[in-house]
Amino acid sequence: MTNTYRPARVTNKHTHTIQQSKPPQQ
What we know:
Blueprint: H1 8-14
């Protein structure tokens, strides 16, 4: 699993809820 915040390329495939290159707002 990825960390709390990762680059857009990694976050994109893991969570589509958050915007690209932006930390989760939950």
